[in-house]
User: Fold this.
Amino acid sequence: MPFEITNELIEQVTSLIQQRDDKAILAFLGEEHYADIAELLDELSLDEATYIIKLLDSELTSDVLMEIDEDVREKILKNLSAKEIAEELEELDTDDAADMIAELPEERQEKVISEIEDEEHVKDIVELLTYDEDSAGGLMAKELVKVNENWDVLRCVREMRAQAENVTRVHSIYVVDDNDTLKGRLSLKDLLVTSTKAPISEVYIPKVDSVNVHEKAEDVALIMQKYDLEAIPVVDNDHKLMGRITIDDIVDVIKEEAEKDYQLAAGITEDVEADDTVWEHTRARLPWLFLGLIGGVGAATIMSGFEEMIEKHVILFFFTPLIAAMAGNVGVQSSAIIVQGLANNDLKGSIGNRLLKEFSLSIVNGLILSILLFVFTWFLYGNILTSSAISISLLAVIIMAGIIGTFIPLFLDKRGIDPAIATGPFITTSNDIFGILIYFWIAKSVLGI
Amino acid sequence: MPFEITNELIEQVTSLIQQRDDKAILAFLGEEHYADIAELLDELSLDEATYIIKLLDSELTSDVLMEIDEDVREKILKNLSAKEIAEELEELDTDDAADMIAELPEERQEKVISEIEDEEHVKDIVELLTYDEDSAGGLMAKELVKVNENWDVLRCVREMRAQAENVTRVHSIYVVDDNDTLKGRLSLKDLLVTSTKAPISEVYIPKVDSVNVHEKAEDVALIMQKYDLEAIPVVDNDHKLMGRITIDDIVDVIKEEAEKDYQLAAGITEDVEADDTVWEHTRARLPWLFLGLIGGVGAATIMSGFEEMIEKHVILFFFTPLIAAMAGNVGVQSSAIIVQGLANNDLKGSIGNRLLKEFSLSIVNGLILSILLFVFTWFLYGNILTSSAISISLLAVIIMAGIIGTFIPLFLDKRGIDPAIATGPFITTSNDIFGILIYFWIAKSVLGI
Assistant:
């Protein structure tokens, strides 16, 4: 990769902008890849970035705009006129154009749309805007290559060439009947290898996977991964061909989904990146920390109810953090396994079986760790009763934490709530409190206080 | 998707196998997608699955074998002869064939390779086996379509047709010189649209992204995502064309990477799935829990050093779980942001700047939470000195946890260690201990004991 963003490069571009040396900027950036230019613009000031967007050709800058950081794009679009935005949109595929328009404030959307000259393009974009962004309709583009089953191969190649002009990557050629119903597919390779004048109806492959326009984006991703597809046609309820989803959009869905789950597990509620502002980070991180604070105050309140016992057996108190931490760790482990299993759609068997398995697993882990803790505390304090109280509690807490960690994501999923929110501070905090409660309650029984 | 694994379907297949009704099984499964058959086999017993693999055509079963669960594949391959495995390998692309061979015990590998009849295929597979599995060489397939820059378009199409037979998806046609050095590319679309007899050297696009054969798999994934590529050619140090990586392999890399990071953050050390055995889960979960146990014992030891203070101010003890939990939560949040930034290669600026930012962020979050805690505890216990001790400690602990959480993954990354291991129990446990130590130390100073 020859293009690398260095401080020299940024200074060079900045000084060219200050000198208003448009010719040199065009010569310097006009041939670069849009992804590289986007990376460069992320480093420039808003005015400089806007200057370059206005200067370069829309064919290039439309892709640059789709690639840069959402916050930066929003600001740049504010600096462009409706007409200028419309020019960028003309160059984009319908799916990207619809995504970009959807980010504009509502009153601007109509103005921008009215400035787009290509009526077909406008119609497609307006249609795409009606779909939920997390559905197949929200992901698909209207650009595709389709041929009629009644054509012969010659006509097909001719019509295809015209259509292919607007399609970045062809992948498959879809075969439809006179009502636009999806009948099958042809690959470019087949077309190159077959050199016949036979009608398409005799050549095409009638087996073609498709997804409904209202299918959830995550499910489309699972289907495309399972069947190793690089593109999939989208149909409506009457099996009419509506659009096409390509694998690059699915890669984005997979990445976003994974990042969201990861952040939720880490207790971050909003989609933030390392380079967002302190304020954005505060907003994303504070809610779970606040929950943790409430949990901690809850734990303190529980503990103050056992003050008398603690004064007699202060050792018990020393192990509260251990019990709380183990409850949290076990809970996060179990819930992470369930969340991943749900996301990959490979969780088999009933909830009952799953809880039973987690129960056996907790007993194995719990026994090993409790015995270790028993031996250690006995050696350290020489009081068999205290050691028993602490170890039995640990076993009970591990079992409880495993079951809660398994149950909560399954329960949320059944209720249609994203199970990923169950991992992280939610499980940690609730298990902390339950863990401490169980701990003191068992200790009280064992020590007979 | 018409094919769904139901209990009836499994029973039907099982009973056909018992009746040894091969014809019915072939009619029933012979036309299904390999991914569906793989899903079915995961539900059958090992003997039943092996029976079906032996019965169906290798062209289908080779893909089925690549798709099923690794553990099941290992067992089925044990039941097949070297000759039978060789037949499966003949049908696979070189990258999949090499992956499958690599899973066999070493003494079997040679035997199987010697049974493959296609010598070209053997040579390619043996070459691929020499590359690290996490490198571009380990991901690439030898199957690709390449043409010589000195040919004309006509000859190109003819040669291409022959080559394309062996290539599942063509994507790009690579242009090489007489030394096999990568010069550029042509797309199938270009070839369909251009109908000239011009030499290839005048038609091809000289700009082509490529990766070195020793490039890390993760970096290949980043490049292909950044430039929205569906296939990328792999070259050696002399820029000689060695193979090709397609986007479906990259999707697997991205998913595996994300799942691994997620599991590490949740304290799971080995790649386990919900349906693995209790024993496999124990092995994956116990190490971090053991670390947590050690941490808890460490915390207990620290606390016993402050026994005297605790007896005077038992309230302090009630808030130990809160302090420990907050330290853990803040640490996990900060490290998750860094781990993600590193994975996406979008972390800019120096370590110093990053720590400074986390410092400001921790002060904001810390002040808000500490003031809340101060008000609450003051209201509850009416002792301004105790409330101050607890709140000041919380602020200090949050700042420390944020800095440790930011520093550790950056440090690990610099040392060439996967920063993802820093999240989860590692951060939680070390922050627990540090947090408690700081807490009691500050409390001691504030209360003047």
About this structure: The mean pLDDT of chain B is 88. The first strand of chain B starts at residue 145 and ends at 148. The longest helix of chain B spans residues 351-381. Chain B touches chain A through 108 residues (CB under 8 Å).
